[in-house]
Write a structure and sequence with these properties.
single chain; alpha/beta; Rossmann fold; 3 domains; six-stranded parallel beta sheet; 24 helices; 37% helix; globular
């Protein structure tokens, strides 16, 4: 006989889970005690359940093993929801375990709001944000539910699953052996029709300006090695989405840059000039294509490969659809196309290089007041070669980093894309630093975003994590302030007016983290030196940016993706 919570602890270890993130509460005490007694899975206590969810998100993305976060019933469970949504939209495998009141305290179909204290129907709340959301009804079904949860989190397009476990079930005894070694599912295969390969081959043969647009699906599909083999064998230049900044090393000769709303301008121009676009694991959402999807499609052939049929020919129509998981597609593509002779794309590569030189990202802001954030990102990159990953929050700093950060071959880039959740980076850094230890990780965060989960500085300190925090401090909610500047007659309500921030250097010191403030360009070198003075210790660098520094270039909403602010003006109001 085995106590159910003991089985949970052993099952997590059996599925290669080595860290669980949680904030303690009454309805998960059985599981916490079992994890403590089992002793093989690290328990990391955060100070807000949302932070635990973001940390699990990071672990899932970095390892391919579902990240795990737990919370008690009621407010603990509901606090997970933003992080669950982040996993869902960004395809991060994760399993969320919530404690629930005893089964006899569930209201069931009674015409009341609540029976047990903190009883909350988290299963219904989480369903739109998960691949599945289940409540365990009997002790006997617990092993099967856990197995289904982990398998589903990894199957197809990865994502989160939630398992809600009443407290009396956790305390039940199971007549079941220890978790057994399971048979691994077969690797996915590709069954693309010959006519599709024929059409793809024909388009590639006549193309003079081909491009690959790579999204985060390449990593989610565990296809990164196959992807590199494919583009290097055929010699295809690569543009990336916001979530795929780290798919090609910054100095790779085939890397072009980021396309989309806040693109590297040269990358948008290269895309507009292309005659063939191969889209791999990217959704073609509005922040990539701009509002004018007719211009985005143009006369070029677009081959769109995705494991979800609904994502293909959705916003951008008349694409050549290939419904397949990316790794088997790329492996097959290498066999089908890798041995053939293709066009000589030397002239095209030179044209892209010329565009890059013409639209240097460091010159986009012109004569800025104070520190130029694009220039700073290059300086930060040069100082941070030893970093294992960049964890980037949401706001203007996110776009400056995506435009200008030099992410190396051994470095990762994690940010919140689909959910766009402020407060992501510091929390995710907890998961990343534990996963990538002993190498340090860098957090790039705005002053507004840092205040969303500031309490996790204590988690960093308590766990002695080498997290280097760089605050891009413009003393406002900059992304929305820029939006108000464009569309609301410079009425800066709640972004500048009615907003402020503390002295982050002093806050860091209160947590026992060393810090340094950079107020002008002359101090940058010294600040970056201090940041890395002790690679194994956390550090906070507070970098002052002028409040009215905008992110440019930016697609002028309503116009084609090559018509970008500040040179062009929008014709309509965007949603964000």
């Amino acid at each position: 006989m085995l106590k159910a919570s003991d089985y949970i602890a052993r099952y997590l270890y059996h599925r290669d889970v080595r860290t669980v993130f949680e904030l303690s509460g009454g309805m998960i005490t059985h599981i916490l005690n079992s994890l403590y007694e089992f002793g093989k899975v690290r328990v990391v206590s955060v100070h807000h359940e949302q932070a635990g969810a973001f940390a699990a998100d990071a672990v899932g993305r970095l390892t391919g093993v579902p990240g795990v976060a737990m919370a008690t019933s009621g407010p603990g469970a509901t606090n997970l929801l933003t992080g669950i949504g982040s996993c869902y939209f960004d395809s991060s495998p994760a399993v969320f375990i919530t404690g629930q009141v005893n089964r006899h305290e569930l209201r069931g179909d009674k015409a009341i709001r609540q029976l047990g204290f903190q009883e909350t129907d988290i299963v219904s709340m989480a369903k739109p944000l998960t691949k599945a959301s289940w409540q365990v009804r009997t002790p006997e079904e617990l092993p099967e539910v856990l197995e289904r949860a982990f398998d589903l989190a990894l199957a197809g397009r990865p994502g989160p699953v939630l398992v809600d476990i009443p407290m009396d079930i956790q305390n039940s005894m199971l007549d079941i052996p220890e978790p057994r070694t399971r048979q691994l599912p077969p690797s996915p295969t590709s069954s693309i029709e010959a006519v599709v390969w024929s059409r793809f081959r024909a388009e590639l043969r006549v193309s003079k300006r081909p491009l690959v647009l790579v999204g985060a699906g390449v990593r989610a599909g565990k296809a990164i090695d196959a992807f590199h083999q494919f583009v290097e064998t055929i010699g295809l230049p690569v543009v990336n989405s916001l979530l795929a900044v780290d798919v090609m090393p910054y100095d790779h000769p085939l890397r072009v840059g980021m396309i989309g709303s806040y693109a590297n301008r040269w990358a948008n121009h290269a895309l507009a000039s292309s005659d063939l676009l191969v889209v791999l694991g990217s959704r073609l959402d509005i922040r990539q294509t701009g509002n004018d999807t007719t211009f985005f499609k143009g006369n070029r052939a677009i081959v769109h490969v995705d494991c979800e049929p609904g994502e293909v020919n959705n916003r951008v129509s008349n694409c050549i659809p290939i419904i397949s998981e990316l790794r088997p597609f790329l492996e097959t593509a290498l066999r089908e196309l890798g041995g053939e002779e293709h066009q000589d794309w030397t002239t095209w590569n030179r044209e892209i290089a010329s565009l890059r030189k013409k639209f240097d990202d460091r010159l986009e802001l012109g004569a800025t007041t104070g520190i130029n954030p694009n220039v700073f990102m290059h300086q930060l990159s040069a100082a941070s070669r030893q970093a294992a990953a960049y964890l980037v929050d949401v706001g203007q700093h996110q776009m400056w980093a995506a435009q200008s950060l030099e992410v190396g071959a051994s470095q990762r880039w994690l940010t919140s894309g689909g959910m766009g959740a402020m407060g992501f980076a510091l929390s995710a850094a907890v998961g990343a630093a534990i996963t990538l230890a002993p190498r340090a990780v860098v957090v790039i965060v705005g002053d507004g975003s840092l205040q969303c989960n500031l309490q996790e500085l204590q988690t960093v300190v308590r766990n002695r994590l080498p997290v280097k925090i760089v605050v891009i401090n413009n003393h406002c909610h900059g992304m929305v302030r820029q939006f108000q500047q464009s569309y609301f007659k410079e009425h800066y309500q709640s972004t500048l007016w009615g907003y402020d921030a503390p002295d982050f250097a002093r806050i860091a010191q209160a947590y026992g983290i060393r810090s340094f403030k950079v107020d002008n360009q002359d101090q940058v070198e010294a600040g970056l030196g201090r940041l890395w003075e002790d690679p194994d210790a956390p550090f906070l660098l507070d970098v002052t940016i002028d409040t009215f520094t905008n992110v440019y270039p930016k697609i002028a909403f309503g116009r084609p993706l090559t018509e970008m602010e500040p040179d062009s003006k929008p014709t309509a109001m965007e949603s964000t």
